[in-house]
Amino acid sequence: MAKDGIGASVLRKEDRRFTTGQGTYTDDVNRPGQLHAVFVRSPHAHATIKSVDLTAARAMPGVVAIHTGEELAEGGINNLICGWGITSKDGTPMKMGPYPPLAIGKVRFVGQPVLAVVAESRGQAEDAAHAVEVDYDILPSVTRLADALNPDAPAVHHFEADGAVWEHGQPPKNLIFDWELGDAKATDQAFAKAKHVVKIDVVNNRTVPSAMEARAVVAEYASAGEHFTLWNTTQNPHLLRVVLSAFINVAPEHKLRIIAPDVGGGFGSKIFTYSEEVVCLWSAKATGRPVKWASSRSEAFLTDAHGRDHITTAEMAFDENHKMLGLKVDTIANLGAYMSLFASLIPTYLYGPLLSGQYAIPAIHCNVRAVYTNTVPVDAVRGAGRPEATYVLERLIETAARELGVDRAELRRKNFVRTFPYQTPVLWQYDSGDYDGLLDSVLAKADWNGFPARKAESAKRGKLRGIGLSCYIEACGVAPSSAVGGALGCGVGMWEMAEIKVNPVGTVEVFVGTLGHGQGHETTYAQIAADRFGIPIDSISVIEGDTDKVQQGMGSYGSRTAGNGTSAVSKALDKVEAKAKKIAAHLLEASEDDIKIEDGNFVIAGTDKKLTLTEVALAAYAFHKLPTDIEPGLDEKAYFDPVNLTYPAGAFVCEVEVDPATGTTEIVNFTAVDDFGNVINPMIVEGQVHGGVIHGIGQALLEEVVYDPDSGQLMTGSYNDYCMPRADNLPTNFELAFQVTPSPSNPLGVKGCGEAGAIGAPPAIINAITDAIGTNDLQMPATAEKVWRALQGVSAKNAA
Amino acid sequence: MTTVAMTVNGKAVSVDSEDRALLVEVLREKLNLTGTHVGCDTSQCGACVVLVDGVAVKSCTMLAAQADGSTVETIESLAKNGELHPMQVAFNENHGLQCGFCTPGMIMTAVDMVRRRGKTLDDTTIRHELEGNICRCTGYVNIVKAIKAGAARM
Ligand code: FES
Ligand code: FES
């Protein structure tokens, strides 16, 4: 193995440009003659646009163009789309409300783009945007999930009356789909024979993704070749290109180059196609000049797709031995005012199939009603569906242990899946895992048995100490394409592509269709190539994020890079290796089978005859000495379509101290043991877990999107009002460990790690706080106020 | 329009800018020093931290005109002759960055922290001092480690 190879904590190649300020993010890109776009956004949650007066704005200095929704529609620009079709249980398709890039006739959430003002400078565009007069007729709005299905709630979209009577007894106003997964009858039967049934109501709080780099666009049009170039903060340039061309019709695919330069985090928000990309491309052609838009943070709060926002009732049936018999889950999911690109996928196939967790549950039924509200569209945020499922399940099990009076760890252990592959009753088939190992390890590392002593010690200081556990499962890289594209409704394939080019001088370029936006791809992929050829990592370059250089790709989200990206690279390396060996065999006059790679050389096994990779590459391109059955060159491309998802898993223990006087929670110990299969770069993977866990701490303790129910205004529209985790929210002690159960579903045996922390942390934290305060009645975020109020409730009950 | 004369990263510069221009806008747009980032519009995130007359300042919170006559140091000034500053090395060695967007602000804040609090920094101090810097990627664990290590080496 090369010292920079698989399994080594190699320091990141990309760091030098970031630590010296030389990263190039989209807002750092400036083109000659560039104009600036500023969007006029809806100030209302729901309103009819009565009239628009652009006279004053057009006369403002520097204004070049003002674009309207009508103008785009007349120019053949289509609506934004949701790319995953979901069918309701009555067989009807989901109801997709038309989502024009610039509003036409009506606005449905605060922040929806209505007009785009394009001017010589950003300041001038802003001034002119203020001079635009839009006359609105304000309509009643609904922003709270719990209100969306009320019969008297205002309808966000009006669909043709279909006369269907919806089984919950209400008209299907604001209902996008009513979907189910699992066997309802079998689940009812399981409940009928249950000895114990445990039930909970949980809210999964709405959050914003908040990548620190806000979204940005630079669009350019070259009239001679009718060619567009788009620099964009995207997690998936190729997918964006397909959507912009095939569906939205703003530029033809072969004449649209998309470049994702350095991307400053995404957490899901940069997967989707947004209005601003479409409008800037349109404007670049209309004005004949490059057009730039850079989101302010306020706009980010108002426009980046939000996450979570579920309310759920869940029940679990147990037999007399506390074996799980069945699980029933009924969820309402808020999708906002319009359906974003993958909105429908998140509360369905990324949610329901995860409800089996680490447990053998014979019967599961899950029902999800997705609804419209007058809020920002909701889509994937770190974990996407999987945190919601894990939160339901792990709070339910913790509650069950308390109600049944049994040990929480033992209740889980009693019900673990132990044989693989394991077919759950909710689609997915787990390929590998060792849940006992994870639990044993985390309990030992967290000194679970020593907790009572620590609790007593805290009590002496007047603090309430609690301990919580969560055992999570994740599912990464939705696969295979044949299944997800057919029955499950996905509009695209879910493979990945890589190309390996060995240059004539023996340096290596890895082109791959994923898109790193903080995960260290330039280092991780280089390690895989270094490992294969035994060459130093510095002689390898990794190229992502340019549709002109990387031929195809599906991007990075859902922790799919580990399973899919590395597999595509590995497959392309297989092809290059085979060809290089063939060339080496010819040059060394040996049989191909006798050629081995050792320390960067192609050697005839058992001899000292060898060639360096450079000599082989040079021979491949010079092509002076090779026979005609070998093609010149040494570069190969491969696609990888996974046979199954990967199933990372982990066990987290969280220990908190609550101050009963103030309700403040401090996380004193956090212990995470994760199984990500084989780990390519442990340093990078640990970093992903840190980030994910703190993201989960944010959701559990601090973060919540709040709308004013009367006006529909976003109340948490800045970092002043929306509480992001800061450095002092870190657990006092934070311990990580890995267990390795390789995935059998891909060549490197890897599973993916980017979302694990955000999935497993919230239930561990809430389970710890509810343990400390002695009530299950607590919803996220567990702010000091909420915890304090819950404590008052407990004392009142005790007094009564 | 105002003419602002400053010394930026050791060089005397004079730029014409709109009266309302913020220091960060002049640095990024007029001087092409795009290492200083903008992550918010409420002075919360710290992506824009630079040193003005040796003191850490959120450059989104200051008009360019207010920096007239000042000495400004940005992330681009830290490495000398291709040699990284100890704090830059420490961020790399401790994996103190992921997407890199918050990194320039974190490093400039760290340099200022050492100036004010000395080279021996404990975790609690560093966590507290980072109140004005937000990172969504790293969970701060390795940023704290990096600052501790970098401080010791400065
Ligand atoms: S950009 Fe200056 S604090 Fe956020
Ligand atoms: S490294 Fe991405 S925000 Fe800090």
UniProtKB/TrEMBL annotation, chain A:
Tell me the ranges covered by the Aldehyde oxidase/xanthine dehydrogenase a/b hammerhead domain, including all copies: 20-140
Any one Pfam family match given in the protein's UniProt record, by short name:
MoCoBD_2
| Coiled-coil segments | none
List the protein's name.
Carbon-monoxide dehydrogenase large subunit
Assigned keywords, A-Z: Molybdenum, Oxidoreductase
Q: Is Transcription regulation one of the keywords?
A: no
Which molecular function GO terms apply here?
iron ion binding; oxidoreductase activity
Task: Tell me which Gene3D superfamilies the record gives.
Answer: Aldehyde oxidase/xanthine dehydrogenase, a/b hammerhead (3.90.1170.50), Aldehyde oxidase/xanthine dehydrogenase, molybdopterin binding domain (3.30.365.10)
From TrEMBL, chain B:
GO molecular function terms noted in the UniProt entry: 2 iron, 2 sulfur cluster binding; metal ion binding; oxidoreductase activity
Q: Which InterPro entries match?
A: 2Fe-2S-bd, 2Fe-2S-bd_dom_sf, 2Fe-2S_ferredoxin-like_sf, 2Fe-2S_ferredoxin-type, Beta-grasp_dom_sf, Diverse_Oxidoreductases
Where in the numbering of this chain does the 2Fe-2S ferredoxin-type domain appear?
2-78
| Key words, A-Z | 2Fe-2S, Iron, Iron-sulfur, Metal-binding, Oxidoreductase
Is Iron-sulfur one of the keywords UniProt gives this record?
A: yes
- What Pfam families would the database entry show? Fer2, Fer2_2
Q: What is this protein called?
A: Carbon-monoxide dehydrogenase small subunit
Q: What is the source species? A: Bauldia litoralis
